[in-house]
Amino acid sequence: MRYAALLCLFAAGAALGAGAAPSAFDLAGRWTHGHISGGISGVRFPVEDEVIIVALDRGRAIFDIQLNFFNGHTCNVGGMARLEGARLVFRDREGRSYDGRTCTLSIWRDGARLRWDDGESTCQGYCGARGGLRGGEMRWSSRRRIPRAEQARILADYQRDRSLP
Fold this sequence. Notes:
globular, 8 strands, single chain, alpha+beta, eight-stranded antiparallel β-sheet
């Protein structure tokens, strides 16, 4: 009897551990960060950066990143990213870097932060002169759930604008 109980506990522990595998659902949500930006004239104004991730399944997600920088410059990038290890990785097949390299953007959780990075600025074509996607981050605590109706709208917009593979 003890052997059976021990076996059940072992199986339950293995099942819990199996659920710890990385998933696009782990990164799904909306992050925002408000801050004050400005222009060369000295004007200052509030802006809000936003990252949206909607999981399609365990291995794929639709994402959208909108960032604001000095003098009204922005970065706006989005599309479908695939899970590689614990990171969502977006590769732009149209090669949006200025020197012809494929844009490769990684998004991941690092403790109390959501982070993103495009390596050696391979996605600079999505940004204005003063913007960039290298070494970006937001507090994980700013994450909010996206309601199902909004997720459906985001997915429908994506499917309309680009066809899902």
